[in-house]
């Protein structure tokens, strides 16, 4: 078999993901410093609890704005960090908001109660009745508490995604209520024209990012590209490929390894969006997805008619060659996780080894395509079949197949159980973390 070599990857001082992550941390730290400055400039209340409560509220407001930025689906961040990591950070930021706003309410209530004759409960009621914006803040906190409760792991496992998503959308109402409370009752907000301008800018940027990334950009791209189905091809009894074309697809910023949220605009499915990876590298003329038809939504893909309009949000994901650090690559796929790997194999240069793990030969989707493509590119293709135990991708087995695994970039996509096992294997074989690329195709509400 011929081996195709590419020029060595030029050394990169800082990787794209590191640049983006460091930039986000720097922005958050800088804004925290600005918030602290304006807080101290406004002066302190005589009551320590009130001081702590106000500061906790300001940090909670800043975290709210930061959380909106994380889920705005801005292309620059998404391509460098990945939606799965942004979603995880969104989740932990949400719990930070929960605790800071709860601290804000408790400290403020007890602080005012300390200087009055009221107990904390009646003090809170009095503040809600007499101070403009406090009642709205109480409602916002209640929404945050409910969203935090349903987002906890034990509750999330028991709720349908649609139910969780519907409840989660109320977070936007909490943001509006919290901002209106800050405008009405925030002493730091009104302490100086500079402080007021700063907070308006923070909220405008956060809400503007959401509007651009989640509404305006998808609408503009779909108006520009006008996607339509050109072919529906069954690949097996449970897998189907859908081909699409449109206008100016050579200007669509999609890359192999990325995914879209696809809506097929039929009478009964226009409202349903599902994430599917591209199963072929974009060529400027057509797009292709390949999906396993396991539920009602995916099963309906087999019956999509040629000519159906498609609304596609994306492309999303950092599972691309942008993050390569080495000239040679190992691709490891399990089941229908082969779809982004098929696209990556088409785009990659240098010597590539592709390991495809399935239960039986019949489960090897797109295998004929993979074999032809591997032959054309001088890549190695290994089809591994059989039961999960014993592990056929254990350290010894993987080292035998790919002796130089520690000197390659490794792209991994498959079922969670397999992904976890292979990650442990790669760590045991000494593959550096920066050379391992995997992504969970998950979306934050």
Put the structure in a nutshell.
The chain is built from 15 helices and eleven strands. The protein is α/β, with parallel strands linked by helices and 445 residues long. Helix 12 links the parallel strand 7 and strand 8.
What does this molecule look like?
The protein is an alpha/beta fold and 445 residues long. The chain has 3 domains: 16-214; 226-316, Translation factors (Elongation Factor Tu (Ef-tu), domain 3, Beta Barrel); 321-438, Nucleotide-binding domain of ferredoxin-NADP reductase (FNR) module (Rossmann fold, 3-Layer(aba) Sandwich), CATH 3.40.50. The protein has 15 helices and 11 strands. The strands form 3 sheets. A 5-stranded parallel sheet has the order 9-8-7-10-11, sandwiched between helices. It has a 3-stranded antiparallel sheet with strand order 1-2-5, with no helix packed on it. α6 packs antiparallel against α9 (170-185). The longest helix is centred in the middle third of the chain and has 33 residues, at 193-225. The two termini are 47 Å apart. Residues 1-13 have low confidence and may be disordered.
Strand order of the largest sheet: 9-8-7-10-11
Total strand segments? 11
Radius of gyration, CA atoms, in whole angstroms:
26 Å
**Biggest β-sheet, characterized?**
5 strands, parallel
Number of helices: 15
Low-confidence stretches: 1-13
Helix/strand structural class: alpha/beta
What is the general shape?
elongated
Question: What's the domain count?
Answer: 3
Look at the structure and give the mean pLDDT: 89
Strand content: 5-15%
Distance between the termini: 47 Å
Task: Determine the fraction of residues in helical runs and give it as a percent range.
Answer: 40-55%
Element pattern in H and E: HHHHHHHHHHEEEEEHEEHEHEHEHE
